[in-house]
């Protein structure tokens, strides 16, 4: 017996390209929904591979391994962008279900084509020009302050150079890139939007990314963002418009600047689950990982309602340590009311590597923030070796 709403178990076998922490949390959500997962990652025993129990060890750009994964699964997806989109486009054309569509991934994974897509759709972003090779005169003519961004392969701020004046030109990235206006921002916001296979969208409350003063390092995340209801609403509308312009299924993280003059500009789009949505596991009715699976499986999207204020910090590997992780201050952190610790199971730490995260729920967002700051100074991930 079978009908549209009758499924033999497992509900689906899901292929995940990328075995990092995002994949790991996706596998955990998939298991709850009665799905099984196969992970493709070059490192045996990857964070996602450990929990799925099925990993293909291989490169994200290897056409044979991508084919093996996609052809053995009902639906495939990814937790990173720097993967072989050409092969995935071929596999999709052959009738395999891959979401978000690799055609859209290909446009997003190149920051230049991503910016063009947004500009063509009328999405406000910082003005930009293409910069095939860095050129001092061209930079000066465009005008400082500016931000140079590598077209491909950047993440966690690698591949981004902020330049205040011509004196900074020496720090240019010697790769095909774009340059864009430096945006004086009062806040950086992120908005997660899920888009179903039928085009339905559901948007989470905007969150605020708080950076360390003077540095580009994400310090902590506050949810919901401390902005007026008007700005929160405008951010949601802009995020939905951006995701509709992508015309693909899955969850998308939309990073934006709230300028000093109160305007919203989209910084970038991630066609996947996002670091700014980790709090949804404890704080929202449907977390971002389950939501993504619902979207790519063609199931109804869940409620994005947030049930409690939350603060989130990343647990980064200590600056001066590597090797087998050594975790300090776990008991002291867990003793704080409202704290949830997530460790990603990475076999080795490296300076500033994302090793885990902590979400703190509290009826009062300021109190959640203070607790998260306390945990940041208490829960230390060091390692057995010096780098
Ligand atoms: N045009 C800009 N004006 C001002 N600051 C910027 C601009 N573009 C980027 N930045 C700063 O640099 C950070 C990283 O840039 P971006 O998000 O584009 O790169 P990324 O490598 O994809 O980073 P991540 O993986 O951390 O999201 C931004 O969060 C912001 O703080
Ligand atoms: Mg970013």
Short structural description:
With 387 residues, this protein is of the alpha+beta class. The protein contains 12 helices and 20 strands.
What's the structural blueprint in terms of helices and strands?
Elements lengths: L12 E5 L3 H12 L3 E6 L5 H6 L2 E3 L5 H9 L3 E4 L6 H9 L3 E2 L3 H8 L1 H10 L7 E4 L4 H7 L3 E5 L9 E4 L13 E5 L3 E11 L5 E3 L3 E5 L6 E6 L5 H18 L3 E10 L4 E7 L9 H4 L4 H10 L12 E7 L5 E7 L1 H5 L4 E5 L10 E8 L3 H14 L1 E6 L2
Parallel strand pairs: 1-2, 1-4, 2-3, 4-5
Antiparallel strand pairs: 6-9, 7-8, 7-9, 10-11, 10-12, 10-14, 12-13, 13-16, 14-15, 16-19, 17-20, 18-19
Helix pairs in contact: 1-10, 4-5
The structure holds adenosine-5'-triphosphate and magnesium ion.
Keywords:
387 residues; alpha+beta; Rossmann fold; Dna Ligase, domain 1; D-amino Acid Aminotransferase, Chain A, domain 1; 3 domains; 9-stranded antiparallel sheet; 5-stranded parallel sheet; 12 helices; 20 strands; 29% helix; 29% strand; binds adenosine-5'-triphosphate; binds magnesium ion
Could you please describe the fold and organization of this structure?
- Strands 10, 11, 12, 13, 14, 15, 16, 18 and 19 form a 9-stranded antiparallel sheet that branches.
- The protein is α+β, with helices and mostly antiparallel strands.
- 29% of the residues lie in helices and 29% in strands.
- It is built from 12 helices and 20 strands.
- The longest helix has 18 residues, at 229-246.
- The chain has helices at residues 21-32, 47-52, 63-71, 85-93, 102-109, 111-120, 136-142, 229-246, 280-283, 288-297, 330-334, 365-378, and strands at 13-17, 36-41, 55-57, 75-78, 97-98, 128-131, 146-150, 160-163, 177-181, 185-195, 201-203, 207-211, 218-223, 250-259, 264-270, 310-316, 322-328, 339-343, 354-361, 380-385.
- It has 3 domains: 13-98, Rossmann fold (3-Layer(aba) Sandwich), CATH 3.40.50; 127-181, Dna Ligase, domain 1; 185-385, ATP-grasp fold, B domain (D-amino Acid Aminotransferase, Chain A, domain 1).
- Adenosine-5'-triphosphate (ATP) binds at residues 126, 147, 149, 154-157, 159-160, 180-183, 188, 216, 255, 267-268.
């Amino acid at each position: 017996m079978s009908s549209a709403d009758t499924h033999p178990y497992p509900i689906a076998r899901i292929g995940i390209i990328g075995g990092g922490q995002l994949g790991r949390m996706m596998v955990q959500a998939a298991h709850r929904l009665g799905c099984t997962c196969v992970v493709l990652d070059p490192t045996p025993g990857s964070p996602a591979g450990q929990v799925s129990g099925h990993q293909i060890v291989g490169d994200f750009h290897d056409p044979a391994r991508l084919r093996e994964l996609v052809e053995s699964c009902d639906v495939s997806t990814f937790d990173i962008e720097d993967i072989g989109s050409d092969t995935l486009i071929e596999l999709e054309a052959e009738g395999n279900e891959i979401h978000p569509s690799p055609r859209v991934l290909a446009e997003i994974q190149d920051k230049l084509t991503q910016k063009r897509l947004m500009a063509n759709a009328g999405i406000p972003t910082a003005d930009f020009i293409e910069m095939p090779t860095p050129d001092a005169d061209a930079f000066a003519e465009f005008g400082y302050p500016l931000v140079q961004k590598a077209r491909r392969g950047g993440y966690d701020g690698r591949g981004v150079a902020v330049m205040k004046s011509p004196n900074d030109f020496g720090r240019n990235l010697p790769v095909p890139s774009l340059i864009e206006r430096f945006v004086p921002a009062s806040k950086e916001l992120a908005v997660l939007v899920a888009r179903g296979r039928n085009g339905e969208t559901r948007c989470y409350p905007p969150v605020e990314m708080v950076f360390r003063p003077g540095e580009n390092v994400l310090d902590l995340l506050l949810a919901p963002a401390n902005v007026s209801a008007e700005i929160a609403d405008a951010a949601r509308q802009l995020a939905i418009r951006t995701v509709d312009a992508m015309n693909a299924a899955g969850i998308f993280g939309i990073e934006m600047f709230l300028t000093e003059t109160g305007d919203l500009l989209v910084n970038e789009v991630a066609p996947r689950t996002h670091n700014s949505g980790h709090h949804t596991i404890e704080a929202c009715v449907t977390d971002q990982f389950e939501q993504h699976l619902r979207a790519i499986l063609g199931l109804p999207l869940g409620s994005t309602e947030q049930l409690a204020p939350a603060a989130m910090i990343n647990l980064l590997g200590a600056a001066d340590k590597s090797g087998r992780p050594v975790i300090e201050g776990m008991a002291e952190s867990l003793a704080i009311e409202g704290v949830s610790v997530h460790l990603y199971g990475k076999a080795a730490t490296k300076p500033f590597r994302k090793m885990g995260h902590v979400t703190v729920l509290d009826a009062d967002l300021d109190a959640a923030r203070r607790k998260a700051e306390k945990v940041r100074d208490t829960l230390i991930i060091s390692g057995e070796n010096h780098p």
